Amino acid sequence: xxxxxxxxxxxxxxxxxxxxxxxxxxxxxxxxxxxxxxxxxxxxxxxxxxxxxxxxxxxxxxxxxxxxxxxxxxxxxxxxxxxxxxxxxxxxxxxxxxxxxxxxxxxxxxxxxxxxxxxxxxxxxxxxxxxxxxxxxxxxxxxxxxxxxxxxxxxxxxxxxxxxxxxxxxxxxxxxxxxxxxxxxxxxxxxxxxxxxxxxxxxxxxxxxxxxxxxxxxxxxxxxxxxxxxxxxxxxxxxxxxxxxxxxxxxxxxxxxxxxxxxxxxxxxxxxxxxxxxxxxxxxxxxxxxxxxxxxxxxxxxxxxxxxxxxxxxxxxxxxxxxxxxxxxxxxxxxxxxxxxxxxxxxxxxxxxxxx
Length: 356
Ligand code: TXA
Ligand code: MG
Description:
- The protein is of the alpha/beta class and 356 residues long.
- The protein folds into two domains: 4-218, DHBP synthase (Alpha-Beta Complex), CATH 3.90.870.10; 246-352, Rossmann fold (3-Layer(aba) Sandwich).
- It has helices at 19-29, 51-61, 76-82, 88-97, 131-140, 160-167, 206-213, 220-223, 255-271, 302-318, 335-345, and strands at 4-7, 34-36, 43-47, 70-72, 83-84, 102-108, 122-126, 144-145, 173-176, 187-190, 197-200, 217-218, 246-251, 276-281, 292-297, 323-327, 350-352.
- Strands 1, 2, 3, 4, 5, 6, 7, 8, 9, 10, 11 and 12 form a twelve-stranded mixed β-sheet that branches. Strands 15-14-16-13-17 form a five-stranded parallel β-sheet, sandwiched between helices.
- β10 (187-190) and β11 (197-200) form a beta hairpin.
- α1 (19-29) packs across α5.
- The structure holds threonylcarbamoyladenylate and magnesium ion.
- Threonylcarbamoyladenylate binds at residues 38, 40-41, 43, 67-70, 101, 103, 105, 117, 120, 122-124, 126, 146-148, 185-186, 188, 199, 232-236.
């Protein structure tokens, strides 16, 4: 299959005809797949109500079919068609955070095929704010099932070139709307529990949610390393976002301690003949003696760090490093979500730098 790639203006609004969106609509109507830019990461979209399209999504990604897809909508009426028992709190959250990087889980209606929901009786729903995604859904009238548009297990794509790298020849079309703003996936909140429960952290934090609806809890499976407590979002249990090189996160209470610890490990690996990379903040970058140092951004600018994270992991792959040592990027807001992704990318390998 030839994959068509078309650029679309990321500010598109209104009703002026757009050839690329029209072509995408035709493909979706026939059950085909189109990769679309969203404000979080690129999504691999198909008609959410067409079980064949959902099957093709799992196949193109190489994704286990028990891992449910998020349905993307462009108006609240569509939500009522696919979800039931919608609590008052959900309407409050929608008012504040939709369109935007927030996904909510509800009980599903009959309309949603179980292929789309990985066999679950619940459905995850989000209204994207990226104009290309939003306009495609609004204009086509098709609700879009869309997981991140990466091959399963690889870092999520944050621009069209990443999607091409993974899925060229496997999908019908890629809409290129430039780089994604947030760079990490949406916050997922389970609205079927009495207290809304965060199943995946994202740009919308617990504090931001609690300001709107009061108490919000975090899925115990997210923080636990115990095998008995499983995350509620099926996707969170898989090793995800992993670069090809083996990655370690190095924590510590002084920049000098972290730099010294990383440089020592870099030297050891290099002595064993390995190519070694470091994922660094701008301020520390020049202090590392690795083969490949990638600057992720300024420590104070969490949005810069989140929007560069997956790109950096892919870049290490492209440069063929065997080992990656990363600084840790804890912070108040996005820091949780960034560390959640980073720790998974590192397969939970976290090292404490000795204090100096
Ligand atoms: O930002 C995002 O959410 C991106 C863009 C494309 O919208 N999408 C995305 O989809 O990250 P995906 O498929 O890569 O991740 C969806 C996550 C998975 O961990 C999945 O298990 C979980 O959501 N999920 C989906 N439906 C669920 C449900 N009914 N119950 C629990 N977890 C669900
Ligand atoms: Mg994904």
